[in-house]
């Protein structure tokens, strides 16, 4: 079954009533998306919660790996670096790329930027393990 068809994901699930409903578009060896995170997902007032930023980065990398390899994966590890606070309600650009899979593992990297200025807000790298077919 295609994991994108019945998708309850809080980040990208199109039918999740409380989710962000992020839509990733394939681009090169990865994906790109635009999202404005609602106040429901803030940590400090006016700032997107770091866990939500990490979830966006993780989800983007998963989609990049799926786009590149056609394989559904699970996250093995993930490292996030927060550069600047991400303001709620501001349009963000999320990009991710993935390398080819080796021994059931794929490496991916993702970045969140402020769409208007291009300023980097957060970055992540992770490894993803293919689920059995």
Explain this structure:
With 133 residues, the protein is α+β, with helices and mostly antiparallel strands. It has one domain (25-130): Thiol Ester Dehydrase, Chain A (Roll), CATH 3.10.129. The protein has one helix at residues 50-69; strands at 25-27, 30-36, 73-82, 91-98, 105-114, 120-130. It has a 6-stranded antiparallel β-sheet with strand order 1-2-4-5-6-3, covered by helices on one side. The longest helix has 20 residues, at 50-69. The termini are close together.
Question: What's the topology here?
Answer:
Elements: E1 25-27, E2 30-36, H1 50-69, E3 73-82, E4 91-98, E5 105-114, E6 120-130
Antiparallel strand pairs: 1-2, 2-4, 3-6, 4-5, 5-6
Gist?
The chain has 133 residues and is α+β, with helices and mostly antiparallel strands. It contains one helix and six strands, in the order ββαββββ. It has one domain (25-130): Thiol Ester Dehydrase, Chain A (Roll).
List keywords for this structure.
133 residues; alpha+beta; Thiol Ester Dehydrase, Chain A; six-stranded antiparallel β-sheet; 1 helix; 6 strands; 15% helix
For the termini, the CA-CA separation is 9 Å
Strand portion, in percent?
35-45%
From the helix content, strand content and strand pairing, which structural class follows? alpha+beta
Give the strand tally.
6
Number of domains: 1
Strand adjacency order, main sheet: 1-2-4-5-6-3
Q: What is the molecular shape?
A: globular
The profile of the biggest β sheet is: 6 strands, antiparallel
User: For this structure, what is the CATH homologous superfamily?
Assistant: Hotdog Thioesterase
Query: What share of residues is helical?
Result: 10-25%
Low-confidence stretches: none
Helix segment tally: 1
Return Rg in Å. 14 Å
């Amino acid at each position: 079954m295609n994991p994108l068809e019945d998708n309850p994901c809080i980040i990208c699930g199109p039918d999740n009533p409380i989710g962000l409903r992020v839509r990733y578009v394939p681009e090169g060896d990865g994906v790109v998306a635009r999202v404005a995170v609602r106040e429901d997902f803030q940590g400090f007032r006016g700032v997107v919660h770091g866990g939500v930023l990490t979830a966006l980065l993780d989800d983007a990398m998963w989609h990049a790996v799926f786009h590149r390899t056609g394989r559904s994966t699970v996250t093995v590890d993930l490292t996030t670096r927060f550069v600047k606070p991400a303001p709620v309600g501001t349009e963000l650009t999320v990009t991710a790329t993935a390398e080819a899979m080796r021994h059931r593992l794929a490496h991916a990297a993702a970045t969140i930027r402020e769409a208007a200025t291009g300023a980097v807000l957060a970055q992540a790298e992770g490894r993803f393990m293919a689920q059995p077919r």
